């Protein structure tokens, strides 16, 4: 019996949920490792660049809110991205205690490469499912998303 078969022997909601969380954690790790090894950018850092690409220039507090993360965590990520030249931080003209964060041209280029690296892993892993399995999984995930909103 494989490790996966052992953890999926029970098909009750709780066990399936725990299996899902375990696999989701593994998927996140696989994407993160591939992105770091090919582009040198973690998934967490990529999410910051994505938020800036989507929303434009933001104050660090707005960026933290957008990402649903603690301001200190975002500050540390932004500082690292700034050292790499992927974002720029400037003092707010109205309040010098606030920092404004912008995506640089290098950040935009790196973001594109990071997103492609992440997509590569997802295509590989989810490509192991046949079209009907993908459709069924998508329907199940949509149902779980709806249940979360209730």
UniProtKB/TrEMBL annotation:
Protein name: MarR family winged helix-turn-helix transcriptional regulator
Coiled coil ranges: none
SMART domains associated with the record: HTH_MARR
Domain of life assignment: Bacteria
Domain HTH marR-type: 13-146
Family matches, as Pfam families: MarR_2 (PF12802)
Listed InterPro entries: HTH_MarR-typ (IPR000835), MarR/SlyA-like (IPR039422), WH-like_DNA-bd_sf (IPR036388), WH_DNA-bd_sf (IPR036390)
Transmembrane portions of the chain: none
Source species: Streptomyces niveus
Gene3D superfamilies documented for this protein: Winged helix-like DNA-binding domain superfamily/Winged helix DNA-binding domain (1.10.10.10)
């Amino acid at each position: 019996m494989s490790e996966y078969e052992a953890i999926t022997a029970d098909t009750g909601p709780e066990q399936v949920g725990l299996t899902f969380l375990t696999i989701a954690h593994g998927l996140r790790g696989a994407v993160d490792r591939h992105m770091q090894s090919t582009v040198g950018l973690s998934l967490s850092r990529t999410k910051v660049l994505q938020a800036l690409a989507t929303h434009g220039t933001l104050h660090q507090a707005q960026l933290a809110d957008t990402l649903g993360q603690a301001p200190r965590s975002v500050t540390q990520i932004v500082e690292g991205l700034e050292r790499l030249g992927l974002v720029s931080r400037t003092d707010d003209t109205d309040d010098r205690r606030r920092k404004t964060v912008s995506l640089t041209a290098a950040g935009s280029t790196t973001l594109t490469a990071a997103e492609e690296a992440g997509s590569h892993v997802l295509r590989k892993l989810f490509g192991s499912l046949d079209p009907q399995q993908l459709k069924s999984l998508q329907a199940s995930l949509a149902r779980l998303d709806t249940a979360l909103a209730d």
